Structure formats: structure tokens, C-alpha cells
Amino acid sequence: MNQVSSSRVDAWREHMLRRTQFAGFQGKIETLSPVDLLEGVRAPVTLIVGTKDDVAPPVLSERYRDIGAKLGKRIRLLELDGKDHEIFLDPGVFAALAPMLN
Asked: What pTM does this model have?
């Protein structure tokens, strides 16, 4: 991560910490890419993405899944047809995901 993008990320994280008080925004991060963290993943992963997501397009989740598979990780991709980035604001999404949580 270059210095410019790093300072922007740090500023955004500070803003989100002030706004949400969520401890996950405290401190520095080493990477913006979840791919960089795959080596330490031990549990199965389920990626959930809306097919109409233009913030984190499905292709990013597909790449993550594919790279994970090459590393021997168990990664499932669940694409929700017609949904955008705010999938968890849709009550229908919870109904679709409920069987996975049992």
C-alpha cells in the first residue's frame, strides 16, 4: 500500500471509529486485500455478494474464492441475484441465509 492510499485509509478508519465507536476501526492495518490474509484462514469461508454490487463487484469475490481454492481453502460463494452492496439491509436476505446459520 503506497503512502497516499495508506493515509487515506487511515483517515477513513479514524472517521469510522468516531462515527461508529466500533473497535475494529482502531489501529493500523497491514493490508487492504483479504487475499493477503488467506494463508492464516483455517475455517471454511462463505462469501456473500449481490450480483448488482457495484461497490465490491462479484468478480472480486470470485477471484478471492479461486485464489483460496488454489491454496486449499474451503471457500463458498453465494451470489444473491439482483442485490446490490447493501444486501444486509434487505429482510429477504436474512431469510435466504437463515438455513446456513443453523
From this structure: 0.67
